[in-house]
């Protein structure tokens, strides 16, 4: 009875999506069943409660639901309770490791969502200022204002090619303040990450030499999992750092504009002290150039760990050829190559996700840049 009730609960989860027709059919079936029950007291005919939980009587009815109602559930929803239960359990076992280390979880740990939230708040504030200023302009001036915003947004679209590229100039470079801050943080993270990936894959062929089949499998599995985990952490940390630098660039523009308007000359040690050009489009090009270099670093880190995974998988193949044929039944359900392919695909997806986060941060800066008054 307990197994049956458990299966019925799963069936109800899908049945709830079936609409009112199925609900009425189930109510009718349960009502007929309840009327035939002579013991156990009265039972409510409606077994599909709309609240957050079933009452004890609702559970009692669920346990008393007969084959007729279960057949109705299966025919209406197309589910097979027992098969779905086993399939879900098996899939959960296979994906357990991947669920432990994900880009979103690591990005959260490094504070990425808070950085994006702050960028979003800046965007909302300066969008309001932008529209207020535009409302005071003539029709011709409004068109120019909107065109400027559209051009900035296009520059901030990383998938859009910009004619003429970006020309290096003294504008957009940091002023000499004696404190370098975190201007090279992305590059430092890139260098250390690429080096880490190479170190984790180096010498693995010799490490497997002369090992038994089971040891080869265990060591290879462990090294692949370590490379994947480290790669996810490195990508998420770099992405968070990149988003943080976008936020600092936005604040630097705001600070520079405020100093011009208010005549302030005090330096904020927490902000990037950059010599910004007056034109908003030129500001946007400088930020786009910096963001473009960040995406290059992210891609390089992803590729370095993917290469490491490939090297380890190749070392495994070579080691297995030289190992004895014993204990082949110890091979895991998911082969080493399939695991390597899965990790590789996940890292590629994580790289795409990281660039997407960077793209979101860039678009948040559109109104910040476009609404800055010319000095």
List keywords for this structure.
DUF7798; 2 domains; BAT2 domain protein; disordered N terminus; 375 residues
Please give a quick description of this structure:
This protein is mainly α and 375 residues long.
Largest sheet: none
Number of domains: 2
Gyration radius, in Å: 30 Å
Helix content range of the residues, please?
over 70%
What is the β-strand count?
0
Write the topology of this structure.
Elements: H1 2-15, H2 20-35, H3 56-64, H4 67-77, H5 81-94, H6 96-100, H7 103-109, H8 112-135, H9 139-155, H10 185-201, H11 204-208, H12 213-262, H13 280-322, H14 336-370
Helix pairs in contact: 1-4, 2-4, 7-12, 8-12, 8-14, 9-13, 9-14, 10-12, 10-13, 12-13, 12-14, 13-14
Walk me through this protein's architecture.
The protein has 375 residues and is an all-alpha fold. It has two domains: 92 residues, no CATH class; 274 residues, no CATH class. It has 14 helices and no strands. The chain is elongated, with a radius of gyration of 30 Å. It comes from Parasponia andersonii (Sponia andersonii). This is BAT2 domain protein. Pfam families: DUF7798.
